[in-house]
Amino acid sequence: MSDLALTIAASGLDAQQVAMDTISQNLTNANTPGYVSESAQLTTNPGGDLLGVGDGVRTAGVTQNNDTLLATNAQQTQGALSQSTALQQVLQGAQAVFPEPSSSGIAADLSSFWQSWDAITQNPSSLAPRTETVALAQNAVSDFHQASTQLSNLQANAQTQVTTSVSQVNTILHQVATLNGQITAIEGSGSPANSLVDQRNALMNTLATTIGAVGVPQGDGSLNVNVGGITLVQHSWSDTVTTTGGIGSMSLVAAASGATVPASAGTIAGQLAAINQYLPDYQAKLDAVANGLASSVNTQLAAGYTATGASGATEPLFQGSGAAGLTVNAAIAGNPQLIAASNTATLPDATNNGANAQAMAELYNAPTGPDQQYQALIQGIGTQVQAVNNQVQAQTSVATVAQQNLQAVVGVNTNDQMVKMLTFQQAYQASAKLISTVDTMMQSLIQAT
Amino acid sequence: MTDVMGTTAISYTPAIIASQLTSGLDTAQAQQAALETQISTGVMINQPSDNPAGAAAVLQLNGSLARAKQYASNATDGSGWLSLGNTTMNSIVSSLQQVQQVVESVSGLSLSNQPGALQGLATQVASARQELINLANTSYGGQAIFAGTANVSQAYDQNGNYVGGGSPPTRTVAPGEQVAVAVTGDQVFGSGTSGLLGSTGILAQIVQDLQTGTTASINNVQTTDLQALKQATTQVTTQAAQLGANYQRAQAFLTQATNTQQVLQSQVSGIDGTDIAKVSTQLVQAQQSYQAALWATSQLTQQSLVQFLG
User: Fold this and answer.
1) Digit-coded pLDDT (tens) for A302-320
2) Is A385–B13 a contact, with Cβ atoms under 8 angstroms apart?
3) Which of A20, A168, A386, B159 gives the lowest tally of CB atoms within 10 Å of its CB?
4) DSSP string, A222-242
């Protein structure tokens, strides 16, 4: 009897000790990224005696409180959120290129430019209003140059970020493959590899938020990594991803297979959308505004004549094309009298005639003219930024809920662990008490004999 | 989650509580910052995404506002031209009336009995012609107002020949609305040597007839010359009436452009202006929720059983 009781009590001490160890491990890793809380799996030892009392307790193992479905869900929602956030950052940058509505933006500068033509009308022979118009034209041109350069910089920055992210992804893919090898080796020998699995979880979280990778657990404990259906990690083998193409056509390619990697989530997906779709669109629309300005002004000038009756068709005000290429005709800048302000070539009526300049001023806000094109561009950017802002807000809620659901299962709840700690402590004390009680019983027997 | 203890895990781990508090703080702070921007800038739309359609509307309204200001400037400039034109016309008419008085006073005089008096009248008419040439060359801001779009400095040369153009300058005072800010000299005085101011025109003719001093020439002055002078005066007053009408029009459009500016300004304010009372109230609420979030965060350490276990 006494022998069995002592054996059972001793197994209890061991089991509570292991359970206490898991609690200690859980509490110290409460804030470790990727950590999955552990539980000691206690089970009764099958009884070895005739009466069937049993043979105490043993620790069947320490398991991780994992939930693959919730973990995948959390990674996917986080990947979608990262995608929107990355796009949001670039689009807000693009919006900052156009500080509207303001008294110093392109809209206001275009407006001043148009009005200046009426000042020429008020005094066609005077040099001052013509010089003013040329200065305002140069002002508008430098606005276009600046906006175009800033958009190009955003484009270049986004491309650099993608390149950096891709090299980070490649490092992590290699690490996951290495961990796969270690985990399969350890688990193959029958031991758990919980801490390595935790490390791999943390890496998978980063992959999900960077490139929208999905983990596919394998029977041997390894984890395959897919991005858009392309396998990048299989057991201990990993592929590398490279970028190809430039503005408008940048994409990712798997080095081994040469297949295109369709990143549909993660920061890289958001940045690629900005690089290939949004920024080229803004640049093209800005170019259209600049070209619209040049063609409206030059066409009206071509219909007019200088004070000496020369046709305005030979001296356009704007040259070049696109927001970056637009310039003010150097000949007119050097001699503003070349501006064809008159509507007639007949002398002397052309001498002090501002009727063509007068018609030019009325081109302000013409339907499909540069002003309205610019307003449409601003409204377009504003709408897209607003949409992505709302998207980020909604996805943040979704990702937070998914993360909370996951945390509720895999996370470390301090209160919960404390209660368990007390329970295990009491069980341990009870087992210890039992040993001392059996000891007392044995002594009383020895003394009695 | 069922584990060794047979209990179900409570959803709120410290990590979840921390992330909720952080996002609560972020949200409250962002709301507060947005409201503070609205108050400090006085406008609701500080970037296009605040209200995309509103931003485009504000750009358009601001453009229309600038255009309306330009219409007002054009109307003011035009009014200046027309006002000067009217004054000049009045002087021209009174000059012509003086000549008419001279012509009418010729009755009874002849070269034989009072050659000095006739000569004096001739000089008076000649200097009136010179004065009219000067008046016809009146300029506004350095531009001769009766020269049309042709000549900056003068409408008539010293011989009284018209050197201006055929059409007057105009100003745009409203969309598609233009007001002529002058009349051309040839409309007022005629052109060429036979015009009112020309070397063979009616004034020169009167001077010559007075200088000739014969009964026939004096008779000529009192009949055909006087008749022609009256016709010329009528022509001038007709044109003066035209200038007056244009002045009224320019003034009306100036008022309209000024009113338009006010309307546009109030439209911009309606879309873009901050409702200070409303936003201030919202800011107070945002500050309170931010403080509440801060307080909750400061209480985070009390949330565990750890504190109560010896």
Assistant:
1) 999 999 999 999 999 999 9
2) no
3) B159
4) -EEEEETTEEEEETTEE--EE
User: Looking at the partner chain, which of A118, A123, A355 has a beta carbon nearest the beta carbon of B70?
Assistant: A118
For A292, the 3-state DSSP assignment is helix
Asked if B63 and A371 come within 8 Å (Cβ–Cβ), the reply is yes
A127 touches chain B (CB under 8 A): no
**Residue A359 falls within a domain, yes or no?**
yes
* pLDDT beneath 70, residues of chain A: 1-2, 48-49
Report d(CA B248, CA B254) in Å as an integer: 10
Q: What is the pLDDT of residues A405-444, one digit of tens each?
A: 888 888 888 888 889 999 999 999 999 999 999 999 889 9
Residue A12 is part of which domain span? 2-65+411-448
Both A165 and A263 in one domain: the answer is yes
Residue A119 included in any domain: yes
Number of structural domains (chain A) is 3
Residue B7: the pLDDT is 41
Chain A CA closest to residue B69: A115
8 Å CB contact of B48 and A100: yes
Q: Do A138 and A58 reside in the same domain of the chain?
A: no
Binary contact (B141, A123; C-beta < 8 A): yes
Tell whether A407 is within 8 A of chain B (Cβ): yes
Residues from chain A contacting residue B14 (CB–CB below 8 Å): 30-31, 412-414
- Check CB contact of B84 with chain A, cutoff 8 Å: no
Q: Does B22 touch chain A (CB under 8 A)?
A: no
Alpha-carbon distance B152 to nearest alpha carbon in chain A (angstroms)? 6
- The answer to whether residue A351 neighbours chain B at the CB level (below 8 Å) is yes
User: Nearest-CA residue of chain A relative to B48?
Assistant: A382
Specify whether A120 is located in the same domain as A249.
no
**Tens-level pLDDT at each residue, chain B (310 residues):** 334 444 444 457 777 777 777 877 888 888 888 888 888 888 888 899 999 999 999 999 999 999 999 999 999 999 999 999 999 999 999 999 999 998 888 876 655 567 788 888 899 999 999 999 999 999 998 899 999 998 788 999 988 899 999 899 999 999 999 999 999 999 999 888 888 999 999 999 999 988 888 888 888 888 899 999 999 999 999 999 999 999 999 999 999 999 999 999 999 998 888 888 888 898 998 888 888 888 877 776 555 677 667 6
> Does A31 contact chain B (CB < 8 Å)?
yes
Q: Between chain A and chain B, how many beta carbons pairs sit less than 8 Å apart?
A: 219
DSSP-based three-state secondary structure for A105? coil
Q: Do A351 and B151 touch (CB under 8 A)?
A: yes
Q: State residue B2's pLDDT score.
A: 39
**SS3 letters across chain B:** CECCCCCECCCCCHHHHHHHHHHHHHHHHHHHHHHHHHHHHCECCCCHHHCHHHHHHHHHHHHHHHHHHHHHHHHHHHHHHHHHHHHHHHHHHHHHHHHHHHHHHCCCCCCCCCHHHHHHHHHHHHHHHHHHHHHHCCEECCEECCCCCCCCCCCECCCCCECCCCCCCEEEEECCEEEECCCCHHHHHCCCCCCCCCCCCHHHHHHHHHHHCCHHHHHHHHHHHHHHHHHHHHHHHHHHHHHHHHHHHHHHHHHHHHHHHHHHHHHHHHHHECCHHHHHHHHHHHHHHHHHHHHHHHCHHHHCHHHHCC
Same domain, A178 and A259: yes
Model pTM score: 0.85
* Domain shared by A185 and A78, yes or no: yes
Q: Which residues of chain A make contact with B171, given a CB cutoff of 8 A? A: 118, 121-122, 358
User: Could you tell me which of B257, B284, B304, B288 has the C-alpha nearest to residue B66?
Assistant: B257
Same structural domain, A295 and A353: yes
- Indicate yes or no: CB of B152 within 8 angstroms of CB of A351: yes
